């Protein structure tokens, strides 16, 4: 699996960017350093000017890759979900028991993320922290319907729909498969956020992870 992942190019909708950042040294530096800077100061305080100062490049050079910082965040989110989808597919490909496959999928999308050293310019562990904190900003805005029509969220939806298929394989009679799948994928981000910042309103902690919670949830919910 690791060998295959190392040779796969993560695909992101070309409408999200002006120029593919994966095609140049500067583009990769923009992605690498934007992740670190957003993690350090937060998306609200993040600007292309600050990023330009960090990488020693003109602000205008960043606009050659991304129209605005929202599109950059959508790009980072799309890259993350595409990477997550590859992990999900390969991790479950040879599991034939439907419930074991679903539990493995839940583990993949809810577990703590470690850096994948095969992607030198992207620290997935830090990117995961950004997704936990900032991902809803890609959806909760006035342009969400137009961006959805443009296919900006197709990879995210594809991850959820893969989970839907697995849920239906476990229990074809369960009528809320889509709601359950989207709750697992996005709810796990929220549980990680609560675990890190609002500990008094979640049962997740250093011992009990969101993975434990969601596996318990599907075991209880999908009983035939």
Write the layout of secondary structure elements.
Layout: H1 2-6, H2 25-41, H3 48-55, H4 59-63, H5 69-92, H6 98-110, H7 124-134, H8 136-139, H9 144-149, H10 154-170, H11 177-197, H12 210-221
Helix pairs in contact: 2-3, 2-7, 5-6, 5-7, 5-10, 6-10, 6-12, 10-11, 11-12
Keywords: DNA-binding
Organism: Flavobacterium myungsuense
Domain HTH tetR-type: 24-84
Low-pLDDT segments: 1-5
Largest sheet: none
- Quaternary state of this entry equals single chain
Q: Averaged pLDDT, please?
A: 94
- The count of helical stretches stands at 12
Sequence of secondary-structure elements: HHHHHHHHHHHH
Shape: globular
Query: Strand pairing plus helix content: what structural class?
Result: mainly alpha
Count of β-strands: 0
Radius of gyration: 18 Å
- CA-CA gap between termini: 33 Å
Helix content: 55-70%
Indicate the proportion of strand residues: under 5%
Organism: Flavobacterium myungsuense
DNA-binding region: 47-66
Domain HTH tetR-type: 24-84
Keywords: DNA-binding
Account of the 3D structure:
Keywords: DNA-binding. With about 220 residues, the protein is an all-alpha fold. The chain contains twelve helices and no strands. The longest helix has 24 residues. The N terminus is likely disordered.
């Amino acid at each position: 699996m690791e060998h295959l992942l190392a040779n796969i190019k993560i695909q992101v909708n070309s409408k999200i960017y002006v120029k593919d950042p994966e095609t140049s040294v500067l583009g990769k530096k923009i992605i690498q350093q934007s992740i670190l800077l957003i993690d350090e100061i937060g998306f609200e305080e993040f600007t292309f000017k600050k990023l330009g100062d960090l990488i020693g490049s003109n602000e205008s050079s960043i606009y050659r890759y991304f129209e605005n910082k929202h599109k950059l965040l959508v790009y980072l989110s799309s890259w993350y979900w595409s990477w997550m989808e590859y992990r999900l597919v390969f991790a479950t490909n040879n599991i034939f028991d439907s419930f074991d496959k679903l539990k493995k999928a839940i583990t993949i999308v809810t577990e703590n993320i470690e850096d994948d050293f095969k992607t030198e310019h992207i620290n997935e562990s830090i990117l995961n922290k950004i997704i936990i904190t900032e991902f809803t900003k890609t959806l909760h805005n006035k342009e969400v319907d137009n961006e959805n029509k443009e296919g900006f969220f197709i990879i995210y939806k594809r991850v959820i729909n893969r989970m839907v298929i697995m849920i239906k394989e476990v229990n074809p009679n369960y009528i809320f498969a889509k709601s359950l799948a989207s709750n697992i994928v996005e709810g796990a981000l929220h549980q990680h956020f609560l675990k890190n910042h609002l500990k008094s309103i979640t049962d997740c902690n250093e011992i009990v992870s969101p993975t434990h919670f969601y596996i318990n949830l599907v075991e209880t919910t999908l009983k035939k």
